[in-house]
Every structure is written in C-alpha cells, then in structure tokens.
Amino acid sequence: MPEPTDRPPQPPQRQEPPGETDEMRPEPRDEMADYVGRDLLAGRVALITGGDSGIGRAVAVAFAKEGADVAIAYLEEHEDAEHTARLVRDQGRRCELLPGDLADRERCRTVVERTVEALGGLNILVNNVATQWPVKSPDELTEDQWMRTFDVNIHSYFRVTAAALPHLGEGDCIINTGSVNGLRGNKTLIDYSATKGAVHAWTYAMAQALTERGIRVNCVAPGPVWTPLIPSTFPEKRVEHFGEQVPYQRPADPDEIAPSYVFLASNRLSSYYTGEVLAALGGQTVPGG
Fold first, then answer.
1. Residues annotated as catalytic (active site), given as ranges
2. What CATH number does the domain located at 45-271 have?
3. For position 289, what pLDDT does the model report?
4. Quick check: 156 pLDDT over 60?
5. Fewest CB within a 10 Å sphere: which of 52, 111, 182, 238?
6. What residue segments make up the domains of the chain, in order of their start?
7. Measured between alpha carbons, how far is 173 from 169 in angstroms, rounded to an integer?
8. 126-144: pLDDT as tens digits
C-alpha cells in the first residue's frame, strides 16, 4: 500500500449526485488490491448498505477476501455496483446486488429478505448508506432535506436492523458507519452531523440491548474519506481542499478504513468489543478539537 505522503492531491471537480467512482481524480483506492485475507469471515454472509462504492465497496471486497458472501444494497449507481460485484466474485464468493432507495421503509425490509433468500442467511450487517447536502447557513436547511437525511442516514439503519434481527444469532454482529461530524458537529452539515451523532448513540444503546443475545454492535466513525459522496455534494473549491484539516493533511482512501470493519466483524479479533465507536481521524486524536 502506498505511504500516506504518496497520495496525489485531488483537483477541483464536481459531479452530479450520487457520483461515480471512475470520474473521480484521483480515483479512490477502494479495491483492496494489496489486502490479503486470512479466512477471518469464512462461511459468513454479510449485507452492506451503500456497498457499491467508497467505504462500502472496500468493505465488500475485504469481506470477500476473508471468505464471506456479500449482498450489496445501493441506490442507483449500477455501474459501480456491478464493478464491486465482479471484485467480490473474483474472490470466489457470491455477491447479490440489491438496488433501491433505503429511505423507503419497505425497501429496508426487502433487502434483508432477498439477502437471506439468495445467500442462505445473514451474519454481518453493515449499515453504511448515507447522504449529505451542505448548507451555507441554518436558514438554508429545509424540513424536506432534514427528513430525507434522517430517513437515509439513521431511519434506514433502524429499519434494516429491525428486519435483520430475526436472522441474527449468537456470534453475529452489526457494524454502523458514523462520522467525525457526529462527534464534533459541522456547521455546513447540520442535518448530517445530527444523524451521525444519532448513529453513535444508537450503537451504544443497541450494544447494551443485544449483549444477552450474543450479538455485537459497533461503529466506525471516520474522518475525511475520498468517496463519490464528496465531489457529488461539495463545491469544487471545497473538494480541492478536502481533508487538509487533519494532521495527515489529506483524506483517507477507503482501503485505509475497511480493515476496521474486518476487525469488528471477526469474532477471532474482536469478540470482547461491543458498543465501540472506532474513530479513524488521520491523526486528529481529540475528536472535538
């Protein structure tokens, strides 16, 4: 894997939402090309929401390299999703693609049903789907945007998890994707920050509630990560300087974040971990700083 200082800076760029990986410059490292699995998830089945690109893609490929079959729920980025599926299948694992909007409560139920039907069960749920829309001031934040962000970023986590719980048993796990913005807030991502703070608190509560069932619940809360969400939601100038605020002075690539999900998914590595929010912040050791 390249050293942190080897990453080229990203030039100003803009995409239409939800964004496409192959239009990004530089393209994010999300294929886990240098990752070597150790059968840490052999025989397991994982459902990853927002699994078509970015962190979700990297997690899907890493899980496959560890021996898991993978279902990917995604919005409409079919080209990205098909590419991720090929990467998973190249590892000799099955991959089920589940397009649809998880802001819809019925869709949250059906992605779980289709995963179980296609892959024979469910052991690992990764709630990763997210949306964001920056605003210049609180006055710009509409109720429609607020509700849409909550429906995608936290309500879908609750609904997919509720549908998944009857299929999860002792030794299975749930991993949620949080954010540094849920730890300290962000004045331009007000609704997004609120949802990510809710994800963290929900992780704590669900971990306590599911200990007797032997189901672990954890969260990964990254700092800046170079994914299609960034050029498809931020203005060009902000994209150019994205990630410069952390000590590493750059965003992470998805392949630097995905191993955290492998760690939390593997009972061999993290059997005593539940209710954790693992913050990968590029050297920003005080999240509120």
1. 192
2. 3.40.50.720
3. 52
4. yes
5. 238
6. 45-271
7. 8
8. 999 999 999 999 999 999 9
